[in-house]
Amino acid sequence: MDAEIESGEFVCIVGPSGCGKSTFLRIVAGLIPPSEGVLSLGSDGGQAPLAAVVFQDYSIFPWKTVEANVRFGLDLLRVPRHEADTRVERSLSRLGLTEFRKAYPGTLSGGMRQRVSIARALVTEPQVLLMDEPFAALDAQLRHLLQDELLELWQEDRRTVLFITHNLDEALLLGDRVLVMSARPGRIVGEFKVPFERPRSGDIRRSPEFAAMESEIWDLLRSEVAAGIPATGGTKVPA
């Protein structure tokens, strides 16, 4: 099954562990070449970088301050200093990092470090934002908080986002569409258009429609998860 992502669309991909979700994202990012198939990325013709990536493990430089980490991509792009200063200030403010600008990553919580990663990606104003399970390492409360913050940030500029997650709740809250991948070798076996209107907030988690759609996607995903579990003689995936 082919997949097409429209400009300004927030698309979430879910699937069993090891099915190739992160590999696919790295192919889109240009970090590894595809072994087969065709990937086509359109550009809007502007000067902004085509893509920026936010990884699960933060991937920020421990020897650089928060401010220097956020500025790093702009330095690589040779953005003029005055413009870079303005963009860094705006990005620090949007992610609640202004008062931590001189801090080093080792002094920050996991949630704050992930904010730095997101700020560093957004400050370059990429045409496509690629996010590989960015909240997976966080506790449930902090994860919900950052999901809501990302939702607000995205609704400000409607940037194209490809978001990898194991969490159906997260996919339905954030996405315009949810693509379901099969067990390895991964392929797209389902596509769900999320019906909840924009702008939306975390309050939709409480609606019966949200629960019903989460259950519908799980009905498809459950068999793929089971297929990816090595046989142990008695392991079953709960209904």
From TrEMBL:
UniProt-listed Pfam families: ABC_tran
SMART domains: AAA (SM00382)
Domain spans labelled ABC transporter: 1-208
Gene3D superfamilies assigned to the protein according to its UniProt record, in alphabetical order: P-loop containing nucleotide triphosphate hydrolases
Keywords, ordered alphabetically: ATP-binding, Nucleotide-binding, Transport
InterPro entries: AAA+_ATPase, ABC_transporter-like_ATP-bd, ABC_transporter-like_CS, ABC_transporter_ATP-bind, P-loop_NTPase
One annotated GO molecular function: ATP binding
Protein name: ABC transporter ATP-binding protein
